[in-house]
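quick one: S-adenosylmethionine bound model?
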Amino acid sequence: MPITHQGTICYSIEELLQRTHLPPSAVRPCLEDASFAGALRLNDSVYITEDALSDFFARCFSYAGVAPSCYAMPDDLQHAASPWAKTLLEMYRHPFAFGTSLSPQQGRVLHTLVANIQPRNIVEIGSFIGISSIWMAAGFSQDNTDGTLHAIDLFYEIMPCYPYRSGYLKDPLSFAESAANAAHLAERIRFYRMNSYEVGRQIDTLFDFPIDLLFIDGDHSIRGCMNDFALFAPSVSPGGIIVLHDIYPDVCGYKGPRYLLDHVIQDTPEFKVIELATTPRNYGMAIIQKTAHHTRPWHSFGYWKLAHIRLKARIQKTRTWKIFKAHPFVNILKKAL
Ligand SMILES: C[S@@+](CC[C@H](N)C(=O)[O-])C[C@H]1O[C@@H](n2cnc3c(N)ncnc32)[C@H](O)[C@@H]1O
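yep, here:
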């Protein structure tokens, strides 16, 4: 946790290394560099002031020999005149956008989907800095006057993730709101700084409408994806579409979306699935149509699997489990088996 020193928020080097995965060899030269004025020595520890974080990370990446990455911008986006396209171009320039926000090619898929089906209500789980939100909301036509996108995210501060994402952003919600304004889409996008689990548990009161398009790109753990699906998919209207991002774990490193597809969605006749390869990295996308309301109880949609995952996670957090796991006898038993 950061500390406050004389009214300034400061982060310890240990915390920054842990949160960003930066190698100490990239940090050391920055701290020794006399031209860097953002380091403070307090109680035998080194801290970086909040206003120096962007400079600090840029220097660390440079000392590590890693240039900040950006997606290559397709020609049509570079030369587009509309406010939303210009805003996207600007957003993609920021070093914190790369890797976590979807690429322009993937954004185009979502945009085209919205432009064709003209949903009245889109729910997006995981907006990050708002890039996917803008791609989708820009697909609403003038005639679709009610078309609204509900974008849910925790909107926590964004730290770099070495070596992929450089750049720091204190307040992603303000960033996303300003971008929606600049894109002339502020009236089309409603942002919710909330945990999707909390929204899902109150879905009938918060969202008293059928969802025509649900984009799940939030918590990518098995538990997170199963929760989002179990809580939001029942509100998707028959004929409505659900999009999952990052479905190829070998490329993207996340297991949740694939698990959801293989263990719940593929087994269920009410869902029809198309898997799409994506570029520049094949993280993959699944476009799922919910053809009818569920005729079977929720346990057939993986409810029991979800309950099992939740119970397991709860047990693994207990002290008794940790003591049990650390016991030498358990190791001997594991090896024997
Ligand atoms: C991969 S990013 C989303 C990228 C975004 N869709 C885009 O392409 O521009 C995942 C986002 O999900 C959010 N997230 C993770 N768990 C969440 C949860 N339980 N509730 C709401 N948002 C969550 C994170 O804060 C992060 O911004």
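The CA atoms of residues 87 and 179 lie 6 Å apart.
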